[in-house]
Amino acid sequence: MSEPDDWSASARRVYFGLLDDWNRQDAAAMAARFSERGSLVGFDGSAIDGRACIEAHLQPIFAAHPTPLFVAKVREVRRLASGQTLLLRAVAGMRPRGASELEQRLNAVQTLVLVLCDGAYRIEMFQNTPAAFHGRPEETEKLTAELRDAVGPGAP
After folding, report:
1. Secondary structure of residue 96 in the 3-state scheme
2. CB contact set of 103 (below 8 Å; sequence gap of 6+)
3. E strands along 26-107, which residues?
4. What span, in angstroms and rounded, lies between the C-alpha atoms of 138 and 78?
5. Which listed residue, of 30, 104, 111, 134, carries a Cα 20 to 30 Å from 10's Cα?
6. pLDDT of res. 151
7. Contact 71, 151 (CB under 8 A)
């Protein structure tokens, strides 16, 4: 694997690992992917700073709700500045547990900023923005179809 593929693959592993942690409702594992001072901006606009606070924020959510499952497609990974920082842009959809169809109102655009810490990439910022496409329902349909195709049959 060439060097560019190494950092791109690393970013993708962290990102899909984060979504898998969510799907397993594992607050500790999810928070552990962040740098000590990492930040999360949730779908509802909640801003949480710091690994410990992220875990504390997620635990009651997972305890109280059967959170929907993420499916996603990475659109771009690029290196910033010295190469110690990566930017990953993705789109994501969610489907309720036990359902086979995506819930369109939960489609999102996601951005992840990763930094190299002690030889491993950690999340410095994760932002999950609703893909509302106000007044453009065709864009919602298009994104949902793209995510549906990315999921494939038998996906989690």
Report:
1. coil
2. 68, 93, 94, 95, 96
3. 34-41, 47-49, 69-80, 85-95
4. 29
5. 104
6. 57
7. yes
Q: Is the pLDDT of residue 82 over 80?
A: no
Q: Topology of 3-151 in CATH?
A: Nuclear Transport Factor 2; Chain: A, (3.10.450)
This prediction has a pTM of 0.90
Do residues 102 and 95 make contact, with C-beta atoms less than 8 angstroms apart? yes
Measuring CA to CA, how many Å separate 69 from each of 3, 89, 96, 101, 144? 32, 19, 6, 11, 14
Mean pLDDT within 27-37: 97
Domain ranges of the chain: 3-151
Q: Write out pLDDT tens, residues 85-133.
A: 999 999 999 999 999 899 999 999 999 999 999 889 999 999 999 999 9
**What residue type is 62 in one-letter code?**
F
